[in-house]
Each structure stands twice: as structure tokens, then as C-alpha cells.
Structure prediction request, 118 residues.
Amino acid sequence: MITGVSDCLFCGIVAGEIPATKVMENERVIAFRDINPQAPVHVLVIPKEHYPNVAALAQAGDGLLNEVITAAHQVAEAENVSEDGYRVVFNTGLGAGQTVFHVHAHLLGGRSLSWPPG
Ligand code: 5GP
Ligand code: ZN
Prediction:
């Protein structure tokens, strides 16, 4: 487990060094609005601790991944998209479009979401 990785954008948001529009926060997780939203509700949910991707977070095995998903659902409820449905996405690796290597769940909702994704 590594915290506060230098040059990590999302560690900077956790530290309060980079501004973000937070929608929820608890001891180990924060959620904030994506700067380039792809849906009416587009929130990023991250552990405060730095893991590069969801597989590394899963391997840590201390329940933190569960907390990220639980937080995503809480935000979906608070944003009134849980009934209609929402999508949780972890882009993993460059080929999947991951650009920030601090694990984050994209919570997307508020419009109909096509399948398969592009
Ligand atoms: P990825 O491409 O790694 O799956 O997702 C990274 C996400 O972070 C993108 O959706 C992008 O819009 C968002 N993002 C990049 N820089 C910032 C920032 O400074 N603040 C916020 N709130 N979101 C950001
Ligand atoms: Zn980080």
C-alpha cells in the first residue's frame, strides 16, 4: 500500500492540493465529479490510498474495493439514478482508455447507456 504518490493527479485531489467537486467522502473513499462528464451523472469514486488499477486494489484484499463499490451505489442513490440504472466502469490499461493510474470507478447515469460500449 502506497499513499500520496507524487505526480499522481488523484493523490493531489485526495490531499486537497488539486480542487475537485466532491460529492461524498468517508474515511477511506472520496467521490468527485468528472471534469469532462460523459453523462448527466459522471462521478469518479476512488480509494484515498494509491493503487494503480482495480486488480491491484482487489489484490490488497482488505475490503477497500467493496467500499469503493458501496460508495458508488450510495452516490447513485443520492444522485437519483439508482432506480433507472447506472454503470460502474474501471478502465484498466492504456488500451481500455485508462489515463489516470490511480484506480477510479466511473459512475455513469442519468441517460440511457448503450451496450456494448465503444
Ligand atoms: P480514465 O481515462 O483513466 O478511465 O479516467 C480518467 C478520468 O479523469 C477522465 O474521465 C477525465 O475526464 C477525468 N479527469 C482528468 N483530470 C481530471 C481532473 O483534474 N479533475 C477531475 N475531476 N477529473 C479529471
Ligand atoms: Zn494516486
Summary: The helical segments are 9-14, 54-60, 64-78. Residues 9, 20, 32-36, 44, 91, 97-100 surround guanosine-5'-monophosphate (ligand 1) (CB under 6 Å). The first strand starts at residue 22 and ends at 25.
